[in-house]
Amino acid sequence: MIARLALALTAWTERWIPDAFIFALVATVIVVVAGVTATPSTLPQVIDAWGHGFWELIPFTLQMSVVIITGHVLATSRPMGALIRAIAKWPQSPKAAVALVTFFSLVSSWFNWGFSLVFSAVLAREVARRVEGVDYRALAASTFLGLGSIWAQGLSGSAALQMASPGALQPQIREIVAGGPPPLVPGGIIPFSDTIFLWQSLVAVAIEIVVVTAVMYMATPPLGRGKTARDLGIDLGTEESHGDEHVRPAVITPGAWLEHQPMLNWAIVAVGAVYLWRYFAALPNPLNGLTVNIVNLTVLLAGMALHRTPARLARAVQNATPAVWGVVLQFPFYAGIAGVITGTHLSAQLAQVFVSVSTPATFPPLVAVYSAMLGVFVPSGGSKWVIEAPYVMQAAHTLKVHLGWIVTAYDLGEALANLVQPFWMLPTLGLLKLNARDVMGYTFVVFLALIPVVLLIIGFLGRSLPYPL
Fold first, then answer.
1. What is the value of pTM for the model shown?
2. What domain range includes position 460?
3. Which of 189, 221, 246, 378 could make an SS bond with 225 (beta carbons 3.0 to 4.6 A apart)?
4. Is 252 domain-assigned?
5. How many domains are there within the chain?
6. What was the pLDDT predicted at 2?
7. Is residue 380 helix, strand or coil?
8. Alpha helix (H) ranges present in 112-247?
9. What is the pLDDT of residue 158?
């Protein structure tokens, strides 16, 4: 019954819900109108605020694009291909196969969600070749579940990275986060130690891994009851290609010789490794040194090492770049929206709405629910946090709630939206040769299972945290 409901919902959304970029444009119009009607600002002042904010997220736009590219580069290297083939030999039944892919999707998404999408899709295809009778749709759904649960609480979580990285948010938002006067949070910077590395956040991740893996194990059809790739008319071939087999030409000219030698890659990896060691050694608390740039540099260096030669690395980056167009196009519009919200002080009025319907105990779960609902229409954790952060964090100060836990509550709710919004499924579904309607029955089951779990986690675990951090 739940699967039928999910498929009906998918058919409805595919027919009636427009592209995510349309929501960015519509939201811009709504915020401009709200800025004129709900604040003392005039229309020219609102337009000026929009224009001033439009390009302020260019550094973060590039940083999020690099998250996608470096994750793809790492997942498509030859050593990862060998690891995937080894892991694919483990499961012996359809249920075990789906549970295995689910588990690796979840764990890998904590480290890098871009890597997780590609790694899990390649693993699912390899498992489908080896496990007779496994439901291919369940395998495909399992590849995406990391992005639908714990990714935002990991090292590439957009909101946590934005809060920890100077320059990733507009100065006006930093002032709101700082609170005061005097400032309660210096510089408006919230390090990873107060978001994803809180023991409460780590417990939440562990609980979600257990719950999601168990749900997918139980939801997978037994042998003979599911639809295999063959049943769906999908040819999986005999061996996964990683895109670099034909990079090396038969004849290499002197000018191209270095492109196909590993020495330059090894040299850069060595330089980068020394820099990272010195960077973290100089910090009193190494966890506070994790920023989006440091995470991206680490993943890029790992990709360089695994691809070995500059030619293979360049081909992997080239293959990954088409996946970033949505980020490049949409983020400036969300930055403009945030500019209006902060520049017209609309954030103060929105914060007051939250305060009026919340208590310190109910505010974090409310943030999660609100973020999940808004995420259906704005399917980007980073750009959506730019919109929400001004009034959500201002309300957190008013209610005296731990600011880092509000970021975690946002993350937990934001990820849920990905289970019913197919925007980020598209890259994976393209690799697996399926449509959103083929997998959303399973993702919707996980969505229903996680809602009460997430609300209980946020409501109980956050009570032990002090204000402001």
1. 0.79
2. 2-10+21-235+260-464
3. 221
4. no
5. 1
6. 54
7. coil
8. 113-130, 136-142, 158-164, 171-178, 199-219
9. 84
